[in-house]
Write a structure and sequence with these properties.
Blueprint (H helix, E strand, L loop, with lengths): L2 H15 L2 H21 L5 H24 L3 H17 L6 H15 L7 H12 L5 H11 L4
Helix pairs in contact: 1-2, 2-3, 2-4, 3-4, 5-6, 5-7, 6-7
Length: 149
C-alpha cells in the first residue's frame, strides 16, 4: 500500500480508538501531503511522500531545538511526539559505516578531489541515499572525505 494511503487509512482507526494525539498528527501529515500534491500537480509517489515526511521531521527537529533553547519543555514534548510518529513512517537511517561507504563510492565515481567538487558528489549521492540519511549529515561526511572545508 502506498505510504499516503497507509497514513490516510490509519486516521479512522485513531479516531475510533480515541487516540486524539495520533489523530491530530495524522491530520497534519495528510494536510502536508495534500499541500505537496497540489504544489506538484499530481498524486504523490512514495519517494515524494517520504520527502514530504522528511521536511516535516526537519521542521520538528528545528522547533525542538528552538523550544529547548527557550526552556519550553511542554512544547518540546509536543514536537517530540510529532517527530516520533513521523519517524515511524520513514525508512531506517543508514549507519555511519554504510553512509561512509556510499560517500566514498560517490566521490570516486565523480572523480572529486577537493571541496570545490562538493556539488558533483552531493546530487547523485542524495539520490542513492534515498531519504535514509539527513542531508546535513551526508554533507558533513562528503566534506570530510574531500579533505575538510
Amino acid at each position: 500500500m502506498p505510504l499516503v494511503q497507509q497514513i490516510q487509512a490509519e486516521l479512522p482507526v485513531a479516531m475510533r480508538t480515541g487516540d486524539t494525539r495520533r489523530r491530530d498528527i495524522l491530520r497534519l501529515l495528510i494536510a502536508a501531503f495534500n499541500n505537496a500534491r497540489i504544489a506538484l500537480g499530481h498524486e504523490l509517489s512514495d519517494d515524494e511522500a517520504i520527502a514530504t515526511l522528511q521536511r516535516e521531521a526537519k521542521q520538528r527537529r528545528e522547533s525542538i531545538e528552538q523550544f529547548t533553547a527557550g526552556n519550553r519543555q511542554d512544547l518540546v514534548d509536543h514536537e517530540q511526539d510529532e517527530l516520533d510518529l513521523i519517524l515511524s513512517y520513514l525508512p531506517a537511517d543508514l549507519s555511519d559505516d554504510e553512509l561512509r561507504a556510499l560517500v566514498q563510492q560517490a566521490v570516486a565515481e565523480a572523480g572529486a578531489t577537493s571541496a570545490r567538487d562538493l556539488g558533483k558528489v552531493m546530487g547523485p549521492l542524495m539520490k542513492r541515499v534515498g531519504g535514509r540519511a539527513d542531508g546535513t549529515r551526508v554533507n558533513a561526511l562528503v566534506r570530510e572525505a574531500l579533505g575538510g572545508a
